[in-house]
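Hi W.,

Here's what went into the run:
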Amino acid sequence: MLHVESVIYTYPHADRPALEGIGFSLHAGETLVCTGRSGCGKSTLVRLVNGLAPLYLGGTLQGRVRVAGQDTRETTPAMLARSVGTLFQDPERQFFAITVGDELAMGLQWRGWQPDRIERAVRESAQRLGVEDLLEHTIFGLSEGQKQKVALASLLAAEPRLLVLDEPSANLDPESVADLAATLAGLKESGVALVIVDHRLSWLRGLADKVLVLDRGREVASGPFALLDDAALRERCGLRAAEVADPRGSLDESRPGTEDGFFGCRRLGFAYPKGRAVFEDTTLAFAPGRIIALVGENGAGKTTLARLLTGLERPRTGAVIASGAAVKPRALPSHAQVVLQNAGHQLRMNSVEAELDDALPPDTPRDRRGPEVQGCMERFGIAHLAARHPQSLSGGEQQRLAVACAAVRRPRMLILDEPTSGLDGENMRRMAGAMRNAAEQGACLLVITHDLELMNLVCTEKIVLRKAC
Amino acid sequence: MNRVDTLPLAVPGDLAATRRGVGASRWSTRDLVTIGVFATVIKASTIMVAYMGGGMNPVTLAAKNCLYVTLMIVLLHKVPRPWTMTLAVGITSLVSLLLMGQGVLHAPGQVLAAFLGEGLILWLGGYGKTRNIVAGVLTAELSAKAIGLAVSWLTMREQPAMLIPATIFILIGTAGTFLGAFAGVRFMKELRHAGIISD
Amino acid sequence: MRASFLTERKETFAAGIDVRVKLLLCFCGSVVSIALSSPLSLGFLAGCSMLLALGAARPLTIARMYLFAVLMLAFALAFSGLISLAVPGLMHWNAFSLSVPFLRILISVNLLLMLALSTPVQTLFNRLQSWKLPVWVHVPLSVAIRFVPSFINDCAQIRDAARLRPGAGLRRFWRGFAVPLVFRMLYSADDLAMAAELKGVGSAAKTRLSQKECMTRRDAAVAACTALALSAAVLMQYYGPQFRPQPM
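Here's what came out:
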């Protein structure tokens, strides 16, 4: 089904190969898991398998990649897509239509399938993934799990024999990940070959037939999943844990109600226009030095709480408190900062150093600015990136920079929304260290995360939000 | 979306041919998608700026023109081939007509102005030099304004005096057009520094 | 201008007219109104176009749009009037010279309201699939329409991020809004282009992606009525009472 032979691939304008000496085979019904630290070449492998490299992205390819007997150097990505479907990390960014039904049909229409065949394929694939009720729904407003199912359904409608999944678990909660694992197991059973590239490993134990570990474009280990149980290998290659316990049940609940005046909210009430109440008479008190996991089902109000505490939304009733006094929403950013999920949206200057300098409070004395920025860069391990443009950084580096920009303002409250989504083990641990550092400096951290490994590492307590009835 | 790997976004090697001004035979999917994305952003962001400042605010008009020119310069560096600007302007006009109900009579004039701008770029030597692109975009913008005024004159020819306030605002807004040229050139340097656009 | 990007509204009369007919109507109506100069013809066309606009949206929505247009015109009039104090003879203060431009603008506003308020985006998107457009129009136009809500969402996120940091004036706008937006847009374009490539979008020179939508009787009736109305307006221009601007 898939044969990769002695591949050496170099991107255009790059000094060194992104992948070197890679080779493996995959048969129908088999699953290959590829993992490694950021920049090791996993995404490059995805692009080689689906044909985007070299014909679309350019660059030079030595060796051979054959998918269902077709050489990727001679077959366009569109032709290859008849055999291999690719699921990217953020499915919404790849949706081409407005409704779910149209999205499922789009690729088939461009291939010139007859309308009745398209209709049948769309219906069957939607039923297979359990999204038949969403066919008339727009693609906007779907949950992450639903988006992924829609994306998978659109791929499966074309009956591929190989599926490539790039970080499929990055944006999913643990329940959705389990759902995805079950879906993929079913596909595997029906004879579809799977190549899964991911940092999170624990959910793949029951799926993987082979594991390939990459580092700096080269293979460092390959074999059954059990090889990932080697802690030394994982440490060396910056990998995540092969087995992760779920701490959500065991973490102590943060004690509500006692106001020590540091930061919190008092009798907070909020509802979106024409929506149901999200918060009714909610009181929370935070203390310095804590790292609290904010957990709850989808729609419980985790992101809304973050927005209320930082002044991005105005409460209907109640107030946000700092130093014992109510603070107007406009003044909240000087007390509380949130690092949103999309780090790129928050970076706006033309170098890392300028970004941190811009993030400093305006009343910081001029002679303190340089040392503050330098100290922050060192704490977050980004000093070597000082002159780089923030938008040229990798995802993990951007996330660390975004957190650093929030932390340099020394807020009382630092709220992080999925700070380790898509990060490898090494960067995740680095982020955890930075979070501990911020807590030691006197901030209270509130973490919205599905990353159970991060929760195990840094969170000492939890706040559980439930949907208001 | 998190970009875990730093992947170059530069276009592959057939760039050289299009930069010489030689017409490439077929549009690539990437080019067409990029034009579509830019068309939306150009139109929607300029409308947002206009609404934020009020429709007849000359400062807002200048800001709108500045943003428009900057984005167009970036687009022509990203898709440096003939007909890019004309297609982008055509799509922008269609989008604003179909979605926002604007410009049924102005649209042909804007497309013609873009065509003139592209002609100038080719005459100056093609899309390989930033100054050619800037000259072409400025020509297109200024021509579009002139054609727009001409269409407005046709509408108000019984009372030409009512064109005076519009003309004054357009002249003030033109300052934004030239500012956009400077901003566009500086922004291109930043995009190259970020590795988003290759030389 | 659109009240809602995606909501399918209650089916109005204008919503049932084919988009191509509406576009043709807009174009012809605007061109003819520019060519004509008789207040009677233009008044007649303004009345017809107002009926079309009322067939697309509620009277309150139309009234709000009219108010905006009237305010803009009043501003232009006031400004010109002020200048004419310094330059007498610049403004022609008579019914003919004041009404004709106003009527032309009114016709244009009515036609555009009819087009913009009666075509939900999803319908437009579906119609696009059924037109046999060349790929170099179809793909960017589909992308442009599809990308609007993503863009609005990105703008909202960037705006939130900008609110969390200090800054003022032009610098805040440029660095806080324009720069992240352009970078976001460039990345989005690349992501979407890769997905499009893999879906085979653009692989045919011309394509009709769904069944051809035929014109209905309503479309034919509207087209016929439009042709009649425009002809009547032209006849009124040449055979109706002749209006000349009266000196003050």
